[in-house]
Amino acid sequence: MSGRDVVLARVRRALQDVPRGEGPKDPPVPRDYLRVHGSRTPAESVNLLAENLVDYRAIVHRSEPGELDMLIMRLLAERGAETVLVPPGLPPSWMAAADPVRIHDRAASTPRELDAVDSVVTGCALAIAETGTLVLDGGHAQGRRRITLVPDHHICVVRVPEQVVDSVPQALERLAPARPLTWISGPSATSDIELGRVEGVHGPRRLEVILLAG
């Protein structure tokens, strides 16, 4: 008996009690799980997001709209960034004070070229307070998925409180599943067989999040 035969036999046994003609959407699926853990004000949700981002070793900053360009300039200067990748939809005012060479998001850019970029600045689709997660979907101010996965330094701007949701179920309701979703919980990190933490293997080694007050 082949491996294929074994797998199909197990599938048939698992479906023995399913009535003929029943479709996958016919049985009712209970949705009685918690959509959010506890109740919070918008300000409390933003504070929880900040706490969880820090737990994941992201660096969190807060900014008013009139201060954002100077903050981004300072963060790039502290990093020593000589080049910064800028998505086409990034608001020009965000980079008004920054002086590194601007690298534009181009389809022709190779991974080697992106790896040579010092920093990238983007917005996001939304952020999840309970998990400290940023979600990018390639939309306005975000650019292609790869520009946030290859450069070593990512500055991500989150508009608060409007882009903050409490939970993953709430996030899924606001996201389009057909878009290229990237879920980011802290800087890139993995562990080897001896549980030694290694950062920067499959994403930015340094993640800085700016919570921009609306």
UniProtKB/TrEMBL annotation:
One Pfam family assigned to this protein is LUD_dom
Q: Where is the LUD domain?
A: 111-212
Which InterPro entries does the UniProt record give?
A: FTHF_cligase-like_sf, LUD_dom, NagB/RpiA_transferase-like
Q: Which PANTHER family match?
A: LACTATE UTILIZATION PROTEIN C
Q: What name does UniProt use for this protein?
A: LUD domain-containing protein
